[in-house]
Amino acid sequence: MLKNFVSKFLVKLNEYENIAIFVHIDPDFDAYASAFGLRKWLQDNFPNKNVRLMIPQGILREEEKFLFDYDKPLPSEKELKTALGILLDTPNTERVLTQQHIHCKELVIIDHHPKIKGFAQLEFIDPTYPAVSQILAEIFFYLEPDYVFNSELAQYLYAGIITDTNNFMSLAVLPSTYQALSKLVSKGLNRSAIHNFIFVKNYKFKLFISDVVRRAKLTNNGLVFAVVDKKLINKYFIKDFPHTVPFLENILNVEVWTTLTYDLNSRLWRASIRSKEIIINHIAKLYGGGGHKNAAATQFKRKSTYYKLLVTLDEYLVNAGYGGVTRTDFKFCLKFAFFKFFRFYKKL
């Protein structure tokens, strides 16, 4: 399947002089890593092509610029009309950052999210992969030695894989993931610098983590959640949107963990949901979001909608056989109890 895609992908690349690389809204490390990695590979192997990243100026956070540094204006609609658009890490057109992909002559999708609706001329979508960076790594390794694959490219893809797999703690990690990592490391990348860049946090941020955990509430049925509001974010002088859901992972008997965090830039409440084994992306979709089977997200204008989501999740866990698994750790939440009692939530 991948080999068949690669041959068609090369044909498509050779048809275009202009290439635009797109990522999803609120890009994570896998999105950035795959985009910067693909651009590097194209620049090394197709030096005469005009390759542009569709990343608006000012969107990269200061701490991200250590690895991902890009500050160029976006191409015009006229330029995009002659370009091949390559969409990475996003399966649906609504979540494409800039929305300028609609102007491209043709589109290619490379993604690891469940397919929603086809809208590209060529696509490789495989939800079994833990990261798009691994898909690209396998493509580039397959094309060696005819095409250049250097340590800078390996550094991008390594960063994408270790973040989307939560430093290999995710159950989505495949045997082939370790094989890909082994080959990437053999390229001579600086693992220590990458790990420090991604995982080392200052003391104040560690206090922020502990505060979020302390505020977390548990239901009787294997669900833990925390609300991170504007006041808490300002308390620790956090400038950029913090990804808080990892703070609640690996709690005994908890099957689903989720956080609601206020985004100071968009002024929206963003909910992230994770699970050990039970599938949860259909519930995120019910509330306007989506994602992977065990990692999904959505966003709300009103905080109250989150409590509806929580009650739906809790009822889902009960029906799946998790009723009472965290009864001894139960922490009461009045708002959750209110929405559950009056049945103000969406049923599956």
From TrEMBL:
<dbReference type="GO" id="GO:0003676">
    <property type="term" value="F:nucleic acid binding"/>
</dbReference>
<feature type="domain" description="DHHA1">
    <location>
        <begin position="247"/>
        <end position="318"/>
    </location>
</feature>
<dbReference type="InterPro" id="IPR003156">
    <property type="entry name" value="DHHA1_dom"/>
</dbReference>
<feature type="domain" description="DDH">
    <location>
        <begin position="18"/>
        <end position="161"/>
    </location>
</feature>
<dbReference type="Pfam" id="PF01368">
    <property type="entry name" value="DHH"/>
</dbReference>
<dbReference type="InterPro" id="IPR051319">
    <property type="entry name" value="Oligoribo/pAp-PDE_c-di-AMP_PDE"/>
</dbReference>
<dbReference type="InterPro" id="IPR001667">
    <property type="entry name" value="DDH_dom"/>
</dbReference>
<protein>
    <submittedName>
        <fullName>Phosphoesterase</fullName>
    </submittedName>
</protein>
<dbReference type="InterPro" id="IPR038763">
    <property type="entry name" value="DHH_sf"/>
</dbReference>
<dbReference type="Pfam" id="PF02272">
    <property type="entry name" value="DHHA1"/>
</dbReference>
